Amino acid sequence: MPADVGRNTIAKSFEVTARAITAFAGGVGDFNPVYFADDRPEGLIAHPGMVFSWQWNSRFMPDVELDLALVRRGVHAAVDVRFERHAREGDVITAQGRSTAVRQTRAGVFSSQRYEFRDSQGALVATMDSDGITRGAQLDGEDVELASAPPLPTASAPSVEPVWSITFPIAPQAPHVYTECADIWNPIHTERRVALAAGLPDIILHGSANITLALREVINRNLSGDPTRVSRFAGQFRGMVIPGTDVSVIATEVRDEDGREVVFFEMRNDQGQLAIANGVVVADHRR
Fold first, then answer.
1. Percentage of residues of the chain with pLDDT beyond 90
2. Is the predicted pLDDT of residue 70 greater than 80, yes or no?
3. Where in the chain is the domain with CATH 3.10.129.10?
4. Comparing C-alpha atoms, which of 199, 207, 201 is closest to residue 79?
């Protein structure tokens, strides 16, 4: 509904504890010591992907009546996260979203929400623009847009050879582990009968898990394992990843731009289909 654009979600606060940090990182198999060595004098660094946990649990709009039949046809389309700084152990992060756009597309109704994540002093830590499509839906009114994400870097012409590529298995229990460790529950990811009823071939791995796995590889391969260098990451959610199959993360280009390192990447499922398209990580150079 265009009238819902501009409405806020609930605000919810999260204590960034060592337990929360290690659980999230463990849920995506990222054993970088900055997330696990809890005897570090400076404390643990929150995994950049934790923004998905905070967003998911602050997405509710109790004053908006939802059509559950439409909700079940909703799919995550894209995400764009910009960091002012990275959360650390001991922070308290408050997340709140706002509906920023709806428009009619051939596939259904496109919608966008902007989430802000602030510390206990009110300072902005990160901003997320999250896009979705309700398949087959019709917009009741005109397109509305209050805000949009800033332009992303554009990749050069595709290269024949990737900068690097890695293929690894997605364990059959990966969606269940991620669901509990990230506190992101949607039954299409963990209950096969629900996934089949939704027209899926099986349970599928969360889109947020897919892009976090890709981010894991970029940080550990291109950024020397330093997540605090990430100033932005983004990507579009495309094909499905079925647990028990392999995925490949491919870095298609790495270049310097405006004094920062930019890594373009994609993820493909075991059928060679794009699971994450137009992925990009923008990183500060090591200080």
1. 79
2. no
3. 1-150, 153-287
4. 207
Whether residue 131 has pLDDT greater than 90:
yes
What's the CATH superfamily of 153-287? Hotdog Thioesterase (3.10.129.10)
CATH code for the domain defined by 1-150: 3.10.129.10
Alpha carbons 244 and 242: distance in angstroms, whole number:
6
Whole-number pLDDT of residue 287: 54
Interatomic CA distance for residues 14 and 95, integer angstroms: 8
For 235-274, write each residue's pLDDT tens digit.
999 999 999 999 999 999 999 998 899 999 999 999 999 9
3-state secondary structure the chain: CHHHCCCECCCEEEECCHHHHHHHHHHCCCCCHHHHCCCCCCCCECCHHHHHHHHHCCCCCCCCCCCHHHHCCEEEEEEEEEECCCCECCCEEEEEEEEEEEEECCCEEEEEEEEEEECCCCCEEEEEEEEEEEECCCCCCCCEECCCCCCCCCCCCCCCCCCEEEEEECCCCHHHHHHHHHCCCCHHHCCHHHHHHCCCCCCCCCHHHHHHHHHHHHHHHHCCCCHHHEEEEEEEECCCCCCCCEEEEEEEEEEEECCEEEEEEEEECCCCCEEEEEEEEEEECCC
